[in-house]
Design a protein that fits this description.
The structure holds 2 protein chains of 2 kinds. Chain A is α+β, with helices and mostly antiparallel strands. Chain A is built from 20 helices and 25 strands. Helix content of chain A is 49%, strand content 22%. Chain A has a 6-stranded antiparallel beta sheet. In chain A, helix 5 packs across helix 6 and helix 14 runs antiparallel to helix 15. Chain A is elongated. Chain B has 7 helices and 10 strands. In chain B, helix 2 packs parallel to helix 3. Chain B starts with 7 loop residues before the first helix and ends with a strand. Classes of the chains: A alpha+beta, B alpha/beta.
């Protein structure tokens, strides 16, 4: 028996074996009959007994009442009490009381251990109303009120209270009896049922076992034994008949099943091989049923549609496969729909873009064909498509390459390994003049002057896998013009990496070659003239040096003798003569100055041996200011300067530099008192000096000219040799620096020059340039 | 199931509902003449009266010999009462005997001899006062016991008079003389 723990009672009952059901039925029948009859007996007895009890108590009450008439009539509680006391014999009388006609109690009897059950008085109403006996029942007792009447005259009332214990005891007794009988009867019924059920259960069990054997072993030759000729016997016969029917059908079925299994196996093999094929081919394949829903989708299709198989099978084809026109971007109609409708294959469309779930657009080639069954009926469609992105890309690449080749200015010529020309681009036509038609199939020697074709040798190296870069070769155009070409040859490979030819890229460099030759000639000329120039320059400098040095003496003599002439003949010479002498003296003075400047200029350019002394620029500045003491004093100029660094160099170079810059500032002053500020600061790997004034300034267009020797802006208004700034430039450039001016006319001028920091001598003790000192101006004031 | 297993709460309820169980005062004792009058009537009901030759409509007189201690009370009590169909009436005798009397009551103070009573003839119940009355041949005598009206019976006298007294009457008598 199977017990379902959570099963309902009914399922529990259903699952119960028949022998238990039979037993239960019998037991319940017996039990029900016994219980019902027991209850009936007890109930009827209770009712009968209650009636009896009432009659009994009524009689009792009447007797007691009669016996009490005397006591009542003569108001004798004692006598009444004695009469009532006789009730002691009746154990179930709980209490009895007797009342006068006015309701007052005359006497009472109470069973021991019971007290106060009678009312102390009776209401006269109750008394007069109760001409007959009245009963009042409670759960525990029965109260009878009996009017005591003597010869038609009411004398009083008697109340008797009787308990039900007797009745209860009776019911208990009966119940116990019934229960005992029930137990005994059940036991007997159980014994009987156990014996009797075998009559029905055993043949049934046999039948059930047989059926179990048949269903477990599938052996339909088994037959159930027949024991009786009742309904069970009929059942067994029917069962056996059924078995024989099943036996024959089972044999048929088994044969059919075997055949079908074999067929299925074949079909499965076929399907497996088809599935393997579909899985292994690169094209995406989707097939649909007649309703347009996907029934098969191979791995390639799943990959392209970006969905796993379980998201595709059973979906409407249009939901999983959406294409748009590549050019118009309009959605394309479903090819499957058309094929299912028209029953005709649909050829490859070339402009379809497959839009996948993630929005990617994939160019595809697709073709669709109907699936037909053996009757030719269309029962589905199969769509084959493939991603043509890479082919597209290859096409684009080759088109790009072809465009590059065609539009290149260089000649790009394909050769077989034997030198036969296989391709010829526009560039080649431009350079060599031949058209592609003329040249394809010709040997390479056509392009070279007779006997100068280098290609055979080059191709031999190409065969070895070498690439030949950028060599110059001689070419020959269609109109027999010799040209120079720069050639690069690289091998051409086929798909498996074999060298099958060479690509020659040639550039017409005739012009460059000629230009190079011209340039070389010009360079040679330049070198020669440079050498000449250097020689003359050297001569000139030597001359200038000698001249300036040697001219000093004659000029001094001219000056001295002119002055002596005036002094030797005082008062004799007329004023005109004195003016002439003065002009001579001032002219020679100017010549001397000019010579001194020229000397300085040449010295600045000379390779002075003593160039590696250390020069303290502060000292240099002081010396320059001493040299200019007179004009400084005259103008009342105020000169301030940072602490200046110490340099490797020649003091004789730097004094004119500062002297000229300060002198210019004084010379080209404005109406205001000159303010000259000298600053120095680091700028990268240079030191940048600036000399700023508040003078008349220089218009920007003259900023370059002023550094050229003898260029002067102001003529004779302001005296000068026109060499000062040229000297400055020469000095600064000599030390690898630069000099320029920053100025606007009327707004003062700032001369800036740089010197490389490698020349700076850093020292902790003096002449340092470091952060703080650099910007602390030390005021120099000339007054 | 015994009463002892009654729930205490129910018991208390019963006690509360039972009217005047203990505290009820005894009913006020009726005035003595009234009680005696009622007793006189009640005696008629416990006695088998000889039929006699009186007609059915003849009254059943209760005669009072001598002083009348009852006054109108007796008449009120006897109003409407019958014995064996004869209406009960009260008759006051003033020293005169009457053959029709069925019960003769003699008050205590009247010294009436045995002979006077006997003169009423058989079948007449004589009722008097005090212990001595029955000793002297009277049939029923009212006596006071604990201020309650009781009575003694002289059974031989009644028997002699041909009256049969109910045992119930005897059972409530204070004393029955044989």
């Amino acid at each position: 028996m199977t017990l379902h723990r959570r099963g309902s009672n009914s399922s529990h009952w259903r699952n119960m074996p028949i022998r238990r059901k039979l037993l239960l039925i019998m037991m319940m029948t017996t039990g029900a009959a016994l219980v019902l009859s027991g209850v009936g007996i007890v109930a009827s007895d209770s009712i009968l007994f209650r009636g009896y009890l009432e009659r009994d108590i009524t009689a009792l009450a009447r007797i007691i009442g009669d016996n009490c008439t005397g006591a009542l009539a003569f108001d004798d509680p004692h006598a009444a009490g004695e009469t009532l006391a006789t009730l002691k014999a009746r154990a179930h009388v709980e209490a009895a009381c007797i009342y006068r006609t006015n309701g007052a109690q005359l006497a009472s009897y109470l069973r021991p251990q019971h007290a106060g059950l009678c009312p102390a008085t009776l209401s006269p109403d109750a008394y007069t109303a109760s001409a007959a006996d009245s009963f009042r029942m409670t759960a525990y007792d029965l109260t009878i009120t009996h009017p005591v009447i003597l010869k038609g005259t009411p004398l009083g009332s008697l109340i008797v209270i009787y308990d039900y214990d007797e009745l209860r005891q009776r019911i208990q007794l009966y119940s116990a009896t019934v229960f005992a009988v029930l137990l005994a009867a059940s036991f007997v019924a159980f014994l009987l049922a156990s014996g009797l059920r075998a009559v029905i259960v055993n043949p049934l069990t046999t039948l059930v076992n047989t059926a179990g054997t048949v269903s477990a072993t599938r052996d339909y030759t088994v037959r159930a034994p027949k024991a009786t000729n009742d309904e069970l016997g009929v059942l067994v016969d029917a069962f056996n008949e059924m078995l024989s029917g099943i036996q024959s059908r089972d044999a048929d079925l088994r044969r059919a099943l075997d055949e079908r299994s074999a067929a299925l196996l074949d079909a499965e093999n076929a399907r497996d091989s088809l599935a393997t094929t579909l899985a292994s081919i690169g094209d995406a394949v989707i097939s649909t049923g007649e309703d347009g829903r996907v029934v098969l989708v191979n791995p390639a299709a799943q990959g392209l549609l970006r969905r796993p198989e379980n998201q595709l099978i059973g979906k409407p084809f249009d939901d999983v496969f959406q294409t748009i026109d590549e050019h118009t971007r309009d959605p394309l109609s479903s090819p499957v729909d058309r094929v299912l409708r028209e029953g005709a294959p649909k050829g490859a469309g070339t402009q379809a873009l497959l839009v996948t779930r993630d929005g990617t657009e994939i160019p595809i080639d697709e073709s669709c064909a109907p699936l037909r069954d053996s009757q030719g009926h269309v029962h589905g469609a199969v769509l084959v498509f493939r991603d043509v992105t890479s082919r597209r890309r290859a096409d684009e690449t080759s088109r790009l390459l072809a465009a590059i080749v065609q539009s290149s200015d260089d000649a790009i010529i394909g050769h077989t390994l034997d030198g036969v020309i296989t391709s010829w681009n526009q560039g080649a036509q431009r350079i060599f003049g031949h058209t592609a038609q003329e040249m394809i199939g010709k040997p390479s020697s056509v392009l070279a002057p007779k006997g100068q074709d280098e290609m055979p040798g080059v191709l031999a190296r190409i065969r070895a896998g070498e690439r030949i870069d950028q060599y110059l070769a001689a070419g020959c155009t269609r109109d027999n013009r010799a040209i120079d070409i720069s050639v690069t040859v690289s091998p051409l490979y086929d798909a498996i990496g074999r060298i099958i030819g060479a690509s020659r890229i040639a550039r017409d460099v005739t012009e460059q070659v000629r230009a190079t030759e011209r340039l070389a000639a010009l360079n040679a000329d330049l070198k020669r003239s440079n050498e000449r120039l250097a020689r003359s320059n050297e001569d000139l400098e030597r001359f200038a040096f000698v001249a300036s040095h040697d001219f000093q003496e004659p000029l001094r003599m001219i000056t001295i003798y002119s002055q002596m002439l005036i002094r030797s003949y005082p008062g004799t010479a007329n004023a005109k003569a004195e003016m002439c002498v003065e002009n001579i003296v001032s002219g020679t003075q100017r010549i001397r100055e000019l010579l001194a400047d020229l000397l300085a200029y040449t010295e600045a350019g000379a390779d002075t041996e003593a160039s590696h002394h250390s020069v303290d620029l502060n000292v240099v500045l002081e010396k320059a200011k001493q040299n200019l003491a007179m004009p400084i004093a005259e103008t009342g100029a105020n000169i301030t300067s940072d602490v200046l660094p110490t340099f490797h160099g020649y003091e004789g170079h730097f004094i004119p530099l500062f002297q000229n810059l300060i002198g210019n500032a004084l010379k080209y002053r404005s109406s205001a008192t000159p303010e000259i500020r000298i600053h120095v600061r680091h700028a990268g790997n240079e030191l940048m000096f600036s000399v700023a004034d508040n003078g008349i300034g220089i218009s920007p267009e003259f900023h370059d000219k002023i550094f050229v020797a003898f260029k002067r802006l102001h003529g004779k208004q302001i005296p000068g040799t026109g060499i000062g700034l040229a000297i400055c430039k020469r000095v600064v450039e000599r030390y690898g620096g630069r000099i320029w001016v920053e100025s606007q006319e009327g707004q003062g001028a700032t001369f800036v020059f740089t010197l490389p920091r490698v020349l700076e001598i850093t020292s902790d003790t003096e002449g340092t340039i470091n952060g703080t000192n650099l910007h602390e101006p030390s005021s120099h004031s000339g007054d | 199931m015994g009463r002892s297993r009654l729930k205490p709460s129910l018991l208390i309820l019963n006690l509360l509902l039972a009217p005047n169980i203990c505290a009820a005062p005894p009913p006020k004792a009726a005035p003595e003449p009234e009680v005696k009058a009622a007793f006189l009537l009640n005696f008629t009901k416990f006695i088998e009266w000889p039929q006699g030759d009186v007609s059915a409509s003849a009254p059943f007189p209760i005669c009072i010999l001598g002083d009348d201690p009852f006054g109108p009370v007796l008449d009120q009590i006897l109003q409407g009462e019958t014995v064996n169909g004869h209406p009960v009436i009260a008759q006051r005798l003033n020293g005169v005997s009457s053959k029709s009397c069925r019960i003769v009551y003699v008050d205590r103070d009247d010294k009436i001899g045995k002979e006077t009573l006997d003169a009423f003839g058989p079948g007449v119940l004589t009722v008097g006062e005090g212990e001595s009355f029955t000793r002297e041949g009277g049939m029923i005598a009212f006596v006071l016991e604990n201020r309650r009206v009781r009575f003694n019976i002289n059974l031989s006298a009644t028997r002699k008079a041909g009256l049969t007294l109910s045992s119930r009457l005897l059972s409530v008598a204070r004393l029955v003389e044989k």
